[in-house]
């Protein structure tokens, strides 16, 4: 995992973001498989990805 960018989520105070409750935001592919979430190509360090 060296020299690789990844999207990292932190545990924030519960709040609706763009009309979504925190329970609606998932970070796993499926219950039995977890993968590293890659940011969009060309993304800069420290930039918060948007919801599309």
Automatic annotation (TrEMBL):
Gene3D superfamilies: Nucleic acid-binding proteins
Renumbered residue ranges of the record's region Disordered: 31-52
Cross-referenced InterPro entries: NA-bd_OB-fold
Protein's name according to its UniProt entry: Uncharacterized protein
Organism (species): Pogonophryne albipinna
């Amino acid at each position: 995992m060296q020299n690789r960018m990844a999207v990292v989520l932190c545990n924030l105070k519960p709040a609706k973001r763009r009309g979504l409750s925190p329970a609606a935001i998932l970070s796993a592919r499926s219950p039995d498989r977890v993968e590293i979430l890659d940011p969009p190509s060309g993304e800069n360090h420290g930039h918060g990805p948007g919801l599309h």
